[in-house]
Amino acid sequence: MRRKKKYHLHLFILLSILLIALVISALYLRPYLLQPRMFRVHTCTCDFCKDAAAPISSSELLDDLNDVQLEHAQIGGLKQTFDTDSDFLKSVDMLVKKDILVHLVDCKFFHVDDLRHSHPYLVPEAVNLLKDIGVEFQKKLKEKGLKDYRFVITSVLRTDESQHKLGRHNGNASNNSAHRYGTTFDITYNKFMDGDTVAYPSKVPHIFAETLIDMRKQCRFLIKKEHHQSCYHITVAICKESLTNRAEQ
Length: 249
What we know:
alpha+beta; 2 domains; 5-stranded mixed sheet; two-stranded antiparallel sheet; 9 strands; globular
């Protein structure tokens, strides 16, 4: 009888310890589990001005040449670009499964616009960059006593086919575009999202530009302000460490 009671006591203690461990684990993992799947990727913390995979220097200008952006895209992006939209769609599930590309969806930081000539996929480092831009942007908005506006992404990954179609309407669209490598995206600078409503707040574009200038000083990306398309054309800067981690996977 005593042995039975002792056994039950030990079992109760063991189950209590397991329950406490589960509660602690849930509390610890909760922030990670609640964030969108697209943000659950490795974030490199290198000094981008020194350790980027391609040369980049700190700058306050939003005028990086397309050739320089292309160099970064070719080094840090897809090794094989796609000729047609159908070729891409056949391969995209495998690329996502292997964490080569991440599916981009709306979140508290940004809205993905109706994409006519591109696909909502980027390399993980570019998705993390979008999150970081959103965090810094909303931090500045809060400091100014403004709402948490979201920025709007207007173009992402393109195939040769979609690039060619776009070229008929957009004179800035080069056939050899950085958008083909999954490292590059466009963000409009003349409209934002107030909740689920498109908004054109007068003060916000300047605050968004300040955010981008601050991050360009840190060499987080290459950027070109395209006045004809009313957007910022941005290519992520990727650390050598991130490329090394990819090779080891």
